[in-house]
Design goal:
The structure is a homodimer of 306-residue chains. With 306 residues, chain A is of the alpha+beta class. Chain A has ten helices and twelve strands.
């Protein structure tokens, strides 16, 4: 029986100014997923972690992705799935995307790579639809392609892999709950044209910075005048961490996806470590449990490890 | 007495989706400007064309730029200026920017390059303020730097030169009047967030396309869901020209600046020529006088020719 094990990276969606279009894969944390191809049309899911996620295929992120693949293949195949989740659900680090993208990529390995990356993104979006109600691709795309990715358009799907710089990423996940759907609902439906212009100036600067490998331009462009001012209200300590991290030499950063995790980019390991200390001190003082990571940008996406 | 003659390129602001932030210099048309440095604090302007532009320094675009430079230098110098304008005022091809940028760069040549590009953009913006009431830099920046340019931010000024592809540009200037101030007033002050997201996806795609030299990505990204649907109403024939040009193989294009000129990008000279025919036929049928250009992207900005 064919069997593969894959590593599914955590991802940071939005990258501050690139709401709904930009994303980045992280070296850590990551999930481990094992898929076995079986010759019966059924899915058996086993969780090898303590998150008690549903195992009924229709209610499981990986499950619905695999169901859509089985439907497409239209022959008597199924999957046995073992998920070892390390990316905490609700962290804002693409936990559901890791399950969705991991399932799609692992299944594709088992099916002799019959699907293109665009098709894998489409399949995996079914998982995001289950998780958050919206077929968004800003975590899935970097999870599948690795590095930094752009979704120019979702209808039709047009994804572009950008050059990813060698930067350190410090992440803190404060153990508070921010639901993606809530974080989306508090946004205004209309924005001022003058703010939209500032935002697209920054997005253009950020993309140019990535492509040119100009880390200072990346830093100057990590500014969000539309989403962050609203969403950061949901994350205690956000403003302090951001301003102190930049004072300590970080290029910049912001909310990871819809939060509550916060990420900061740095050129030097030493700065990334200073930023971690700032994050730890801030949440300790606030009496909020947290977990931190010092990592880098994961240049490849979901990887076969055996 | 020191004297220089410079060539000042026409420019296309906005580049469809990059309202207020992107711009591109053209090989044709261009103005010719001659500046003489004199040791008296006065400015003498002579027009060597038929546009009857004002020659009082305070009312002339080049004049106000030179006045701001004289004020900054704070010593007894002045300029004699001859302007041979070929970029028709009100064409949407950066006519005032060519005068403003040309004056700033030519003066800087005469002053042994004492000013940086950022400073030259700042001086030249005084000319745009006189011409349109707004200190915008989206024509000035490509006119000074050449190629394709990004203004990430205007306060503080942050300009980035992007990689410019080898593309053909077909331009038509229909002889109708669209005032920059009118074209700005008809825009809504608020935009839908979902449209803003589409727009910044396209801007990100366009910048990535320029940097990667991916002309198909450039083509797919030349889409404007915010400004063009409103402004194109002021330009008869716009929709016909755009759709027929794309059918003929053009990558895409749109309104140049605030119009009324229209530009289209093509990979091949042959396509650029087909597009010109479409433009000519459309305005002939509408009974509107026009002028067309088939040109390329001018990679350098204002140039010293003697």
């Amino acid at each position: 029986m064919k069997k593969v094990t894959v590593k599914c990276p955590a991802t940071v969606a939005n990258l501050v100014c690139g709401f709904d279009i930009l994303g980045m894969a992280l070296k850590e944390p990551f999930d481990i997923m094992t898929l076995k191809l079986i010759d019966e049309p059924r899915i058996l899911i086993t969780n090898k972690d303590d998150y008690n996620l549903p195992t009924e295929p229709e209610k499981n992120v990986a499950g619905v992705v695999l169901l859509s693949i089985m439907e497409k293949m239209n022959k008597g195949i199924g999957f046995e799935v073992e998920i070892e989740k390390h990316i905490k659900p609700g962290s804002g680090l693409g936990s559901s995307a890791a399950s969705a993208a991991g399932a799609a990529v692992a299944a594709n390995f088992l099916l002799d790579s019959v699907f293109s990356n665009d098709e894998l993104v489409q399949f995996a979006m079914n998982g995001e639809k289950l998780a958050s109600g919206v077929k968004h691709a800003d975590n899935i795309t970097p999870c599948i392609l690795g590095g930094v990715t752009l979704i120019r358009s979702i209808h039709p799907l047009d994804i572009v892999k950008l050059n990813a710089p060698d930067l350190f990423v410090t992440v803190v996940h404060p153990q508070i709950e921010v639901k993606t759907s809530d974080a989306r609902q508090i946004l205004r439906k209309e924005v001022l044209l003058k703010n939209a212009i500032k935002q697209w100036g920054n997005i253009a600067g950020l993309v140019a910075g990535f492509e040119k490998g100009d880390t200072d331009l990346i830093g100057r462009s990590l500014e969000d005048v539309i989403i962050e001012p609203v969403r950061s209200i949901l994350i205690p300590g956000f403003d302090v961490i951001k301003s102190k991290s930049k004072e300590a030499g970080a290029l910049g950063g912001g909310i990871s996806g819809s939060g509550p995790s916060i990420f900061m980019l740095s050129k030097e390991a030493h700065t990334a470590s200073l930023v971690e200390t700032i994050m730890k001190e801030t949440f300790s003082q606030l009496g909020i449990e947290y977990k931190t990571y010092i990592t880098t940008i994961q240049k490849s996406g979901v990887e076969l490890i055996s």
